């Protein structure tokens, strides 16, 4: 049965008040669990007693806990000095210590990702996919090699590293990585909003990734034509362009948590540079069918905005107002509960993914 949880990174007040407070807030909202972006949010030093206390608090509240560890791209890892510090200068050792601490605490689904998006920048190079000092192809090869070194650690610990459909990587690429390294140790964290940044139709993207999806980040999307191409913005579930019944159908009956990732300071505009030849060349797996579907979704959303039934570009780019972050979570949770309750039982005969 699908569960409805929340992401710690966009929950107002969580960084200041800590893990136990957030668990209590999630329980008050009637949620089923919390995804902590880093296991360090449960204990900044990976102290076994602190981790145990947090997990006991979660168990007492009947909540599921998932957590993140460091990223797995050697070309991006220097941007995570905290992980390297945990390993006394050795990034792989720091990552190992995080994995083992999480496993010892009973956390089996561990988030990770492959690169970054520089929100302080604009344009093509804000996304690590388009770095000119190292090609995306070389980054992907380095990720796969590095995960090959991490795989025995995860295998021995009995955990899955669930790589996010982060804004720089496609589901095509993630599926290839999972199948190359092994689905016994890797899975996918499916982010419903990020796949659109790579011009993927969310429903088709979910169908590709579904055999390996073990965790999620859930939010809806507004799309609008801008000077840079198409802008993607975040909305509560049910208020944007995503066909939720179709997207969730492949997960029906699965033990997966739908972790709501909301908004804090902005609605996280990211650009699809669909008129830029460099951007187009950087998406060798992109099909005309999916590109046309994203354009159709953009036009449909703009029609709603023009009719006054959805926020327009000016409002989407405006600041998040007081109370909006928590309301985003509440409304998304309400709609997700309705959707989960309405899903038909899965009739597909599932086969074990190739390892």
Automatic annotation (TrEMBL):
Annotated ranges, domain Xylose isomerase-like TIM barrel: 23-255
Keyword set includes Isomerase: yes
SUPFAM superfamilies hit by this protein: Xylose isomerase-like
GO molecular function, one term: isomerase activity
UniProt-listed InterPro entries: IolE/XylAMocC-like, Xyl_isomerase-like_sf, Xyl_isomerase-like_TIM-brl
Pfam families the UniProt entry points to: AP_endonuc_2 (PF01261)
Keywords, alphabetical: Isomerase
The protein's name: Sugar phosphate isomerase/epimerase family protein
């Amino acid at each position: 049965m699908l569960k409805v949880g929340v992401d710690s990174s966009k929950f107002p007040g969580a960084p200041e008040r800590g893990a136990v407070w957030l668990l209590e807030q999630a329980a008050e909202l009637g949620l089923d669990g919390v995804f902590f972006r880093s296991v360090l949010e449960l204990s900044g030093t990976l102290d076994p007693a602190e981790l145990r206390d947090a997990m006991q608090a979660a168990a007492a509240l009947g909540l599921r806990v998932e957590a993140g560890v460091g990223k797995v791209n050697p070309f991006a890892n220097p941007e995570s000095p905290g992980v390297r510090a945990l390993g006394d200068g050795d990034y792989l050792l720091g990552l190992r210590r995080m994995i083992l601490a999480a496993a010892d605490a009973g956390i089996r689904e561990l988030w990770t990702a492959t690169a970054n998006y520089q929100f302080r920048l604009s344009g093509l190079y804000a996304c690590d996919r388009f770095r000119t000092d190292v090609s995306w192809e070389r980054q992907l090869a380095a990720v796969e090699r590095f995960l090959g070194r991490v795989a025995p650690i995860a295998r021995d610990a009995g955990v899955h590293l669930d790589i996010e459909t982060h804004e720089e990587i496609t589901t095509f690429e993630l599926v290839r990585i999972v199948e190359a390294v092994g689905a016994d140790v890797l899975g996918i964290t499916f982010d419903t909003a990020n796949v659109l940044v790579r011009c993927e139709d969310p429903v088709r993207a979910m169908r590709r990734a579904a055999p390996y999806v073990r965790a999620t980040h859930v939010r809806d999307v507004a799309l609008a034509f801008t000077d840079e191409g198409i802008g993607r913005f975040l909305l509560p579930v049910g208020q944007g362009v995503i066909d939720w019944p179709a997207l969730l159908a492949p997960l029906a009956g699965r033990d997966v948590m739908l972790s709501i990732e909301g908004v804090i300071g902005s609605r996280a505009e990211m650009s699809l540079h669909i008129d830029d030849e460099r951007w187009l060349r950087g998406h060798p797996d992109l099909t005309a069918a999916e590109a046309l579907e994203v354009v159709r979704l953009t036009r449909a959303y703009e029609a709603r905005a023009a009719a006054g039934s959805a926020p327009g570009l000016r409002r989407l780019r405006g600041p998040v107002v007081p109370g909006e972050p928590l309301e985003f979570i509440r409304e998304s949770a309400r709609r997700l509960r309705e959707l989960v309750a309405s899903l038909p039982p899965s009739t597909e005969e599932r086969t074990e993914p190739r390892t």
